[in-house]
Structures are given as C-alpha cells and as structure tokens.
Amino acid sequence: MLNLAIRGHDLSEVTSLESLAEKTQAQGIQTLQLALGLSFPALLSEGRNINPGLGQLVKGTLQRKNIQVGILSCYINLIHPDRTLREAALSKFESYLRHARYFGAAMVATETGNVFPEIRYTTKNFTEAAFEEMVQGIERLTAVGEQQQMLVGIEPGLNHPLHSLDRTAQLLQRVDSAYLGIILDPTNLITSETYRSQAALVQEAFDRFGDKIIAVHLKDFQVREDQIIPVDLGTGVIDYPAICQVIAKEKPGTFVVLEETKDQAIGNAVSLIQQVLKKERESCNE
C-alpha cells in the first residue's frame, strides 16, 4: 500500500485550480506535491503573499475532486552565499510552515541548496563549513516547524551539502527534532557508476533512518554519456518494482511522488506500480 502522488507542475496546460484538480483526478491520483509558483507562474507565491485564505481556497477547490495537497513545496537555497537572499529564502520557508495547514499539507519540502547561487555539482558543497551552515538553517526551520506542528521535509541530493546517506544520518543526529523528516529521492543520490545499486540504497536508507523518511520521490531515468537523465516512469532503468516493494514493506501508506513523469504517462505509471503491489500481495497470501 502506497500513497501515490504527483507534482502539480508535471501536468501541462494547467490554467486554474479547477483544471489542476480535474487533470490530477483523470490520472487516478488523489495527492499532490504542490509548488505554487511552478503550477501557477502568475500567482504571487513569496512568503509575504501566502495567507490562510489562499490556503483554504486551494484546499477547498481540490477537495471537490477528492484531491489533497500532501506536500507543499518551498524549494530554497538554505546556504545561499548572499546573506540577504539567504535570509529572504529562510523567511519564505517559515511563512510556508505557518500557513501549510490551511492548504491541508502534511509537510513543507525543500532541498538544502548550494554554496553557489545556482544549484550545480561542486565538491565545495561537501565541506564541513557548508554542512554547518546547512545545519544552522535546518535548526531554524525545524524550530518554526515545532511551533506550528508542521513537518520540515528535507531532500538529499548530490548537488547539495546533504549529498549522501552518511551526511543524512549525521544531520539527523545533529538536529534532534520530531518535526524534521527526510524526503528520499534515490535518483538524486546516484551516478552513472552507482545507479545499478539503487534499490539497495533505498533499503539501506530505511535500515539506517527509516523512522525519519516521510516521503519518497520515484524518478525514472536513463544513462546517457555518463549523465542521469529523468524520463517517464517505465521508460528508463530504475528498478521501480524492487524500490516500491521496499517502501510498501517499510512504510506502508507513505507518499510516493512520481517525479518527472508527465501528463498521460502518469496513468501508465500508476498501473505499473499497482501491478507490482498486487503481485506482492498475492505472494504474501500464498
């Protein structure tokens, strides 16, 4: 049993909340990871713009089609080198935490950023100094999360200071908060040399800190010229059957977001995963 979700901005030609709800429902999905600024570029969605009325409007409109916001996205650069921009980003996330309950969300999500203004791979992210700055930012956000009783979802990735399972375990030791959770995207943690061990990576993550995993991103990919290229689920090389089996065993009902699977490919992905889960149930009943 999994709670399958999609990112709202993986649906094209969404022009209103109503069309977002209709297109989501048409794909057999009931849960969204919603990035307001990406689904609705014309909508002002900075921290000062978020308010209870907007949250209730979004929640109510989606509910009419039996759709809910599971994850509210607020992806920021926690360690932006420009201190003014960093402060603005942290303040924005804090505003999202204060208002997420009006949207009906269970958490607010972000990655950990980059030592450069843009997000890109650099070993400078892997220094102790970058890690310490990241910890300071997450401590600040989880303090607000605790006040608001709202989960802070942090997503590791190779392009960020939180770049490995070891660093993730270290973070969880440093920031001991019931409101800090991990959004695991295994595709963000592998390279063209390590991708074949992706299912083992997912199992290891659950073995080491499964109690803190609050959502999983399922992102299929192909390997081209040593690059990991995201594709629709079922058209790449991700071992989604093995990964889904691990998730269903370790954390039944958890959010599994079909990231980068778009439009009509979503329905096909849902069918593929349902087949995997059905076979797993049948084997358990034998």
Automatic annotation (TrEMBL):
Listed SUPFAM superfamilies: Xylose isomerase-like
Entry coiled-coil feature ranges: none
Xylose isomerase-like TIM barrel domain ranges (all copies): 56-264
Pfam families per the UniProt record, alphabetical: AP_endonuc_2
Residues of the signal peptide: none
Keywords: Isomerase
InterPro entries found in the cross-reference section: IolE/XylAMocC-like (IPR050312), Xyl_isomerase-like_sf (IPR036237), Xyl_isomerase-like_TIM-brl (IPR013022)
Keyword Isomerase attributed: yes
Protein name (record): Xylose isomerase
